[in-house]
UniProtKB/TrEMBL annotation:
It catalyses: (2R,3R)-2,3-dihydroxy-3-methylpentanoate + NADP(+) = (S)-2-ethyl-2-hydroxy-3-oxobutanoate + NADPH + H(+); (2R)-2,3-dihydroxy-3-methylbutanoate + NADP(+) = (2S)-2-acetolactate + NADPH + H(+); (2R)-2,3-dihydroxy-3-methylbutanoate + NAD(+) = (2S)-2-acetolactate + NADH + H(+). NADP(+) binds at Y32, G33, S34, Q35, R55, S58, S60, G141. InterPro entries: 6-PGluconate_DH-like_C_sf (IPR008927), KARI (IPR013023), KARI_C (IPR000506), KARI_N (IPR013116), KARI_prok (IPR014359), NAD(P)-bd_dom_sf (IPR036291). This is Ketol-acid reductoisomerase (NADP(+)). Mg(2+) 2 binds at D198, E234, E238.
Amino acid sequence: MTNDTPFDSNVYYEDDADTAQILEKTVAVLGYGSQGHAHAQNLAESGVDVVVGLREDSSSRSAAEADGLDVETPAEAVAQADVVSVLVPDTVQPDVYENAIEPNLDPGDTLQFAHGFNIHYNQIRPPEDVDVTMVAPKSPGHLVRRNYENDEGTPGLLAVYQDTTGTATEEALAYAATIGCARAGVVETTFREETETDLFGEQAVLCGGVTSLVKQAYETLVEAGYSPEMAYFECLNELKLIVDLMYEGGLGEMWDSVSDTAEYGGLTQGDVVVDEHARENMEQVLEQVQDGTFAREWIAENQAGRPSYTQLREAERTHEIEQVGEELRALFAWAEEEADEETEAVTADD
Ligand SMILES: NC(=O)C1=CN([C@@H]2O[C@H](COP(=O)(O)OP(=O)(O)OC[C@H]3O[C@@H](n4cnc5c(N)ncnc54)[C@H](OP(=O)(O)O)[C@@H]3O)[C@@H](O)[C@H]2O)C=CC1
Ligand SMILES: CC[C@](O)(C(C)=O)C(=O)O
Ligand SMILES: [Mg+2]
Ligand SMILES: [Mg+2]
């Protein structure tokens, strides 16, 4: 374990992991979607005995079987396993838990998650005689798979909610190593911290904040009479290049790389756009994550058949920027090559 850093959290790497803690066990991976296909294939290629749990009529069955994996129903997979990795969507986990997992769990088994939503908000209440752990890659699943194939790592989080065996941390670390996360680094946290920061991050910045910023800036330019293609390039396309610089070397590398004009304009106008009201709104978003308001809303939305979600998705899909982007990306050879590579990687992975 390494903690010669200025941070409070422990950070683990491959050398800290005793992979025997997982190589000696059978892992049931429930779900073969974004995270499921990556965990199942990475575990299997690392030498772990893996069984994938999918419904009889699951659209993912053929992909998992084509990838050479043993596929059973979720109930049968859990019955065979020592570690149950719950990688079906958060919204169906309570149902899958009740019907397939709980009746087939043995004392000393492990319930393993990639996100803490259902444990933290008490939608799943495991028995006291099993370990409950989390290994949460900080990345979309397809990159977890791609990085593993390229001998690279994906940073991840590790948390233990319940440790009845006394070896929960060691086993979770071995799991993190065999899916490739410990190659990059695994940060120890809690279910509460992972759940609340993950939800806040995806709502305020990664998925919500960024898309709203892009759409509103695009609309501002187009409504002022500028061409949609200029608006697309300025407000969406170039964002990737700017974020790549921040990813590589922090805000500093980005500021160093742009012109002084951009730096001065950015430093003076950034806080005008994302002002103290945006900050207050962020605090409200965080509060609703912390006090369970968002979780209750999302659970109720699913129970009602997702009426708002369906409408919001449709509005996003039909926004003008999507049409403009599709047409523009098709004009550029580099985009076509990248899209082809991407499709090949995803098709190969799925
Ligand atoms: N997406 C990501 O990159 C990240 C996800 N996570 C977490 O990982 C977990 C999994 O998320 P994600 O990978 O996005 O999930 P997906 O939506 O990609 O999962 C789809 C898979 O789940 C199966 N599935 C759906 N419903 C059921 C059901 N009722 N019974 C059995 N199988 C079912 C689907 O099979 P079928 O064909 O039968 O529908 C499919 O194989 C979540 O906890 C999420 O928060 C964490 C970090 C990042
Ligand atoms: C950013 C979205 C995410 O939290 C992720 C890929 O980490 C998710 O829930 O998919
Ligand atoms: Mg996340
Ligand atoms: Mg998330």
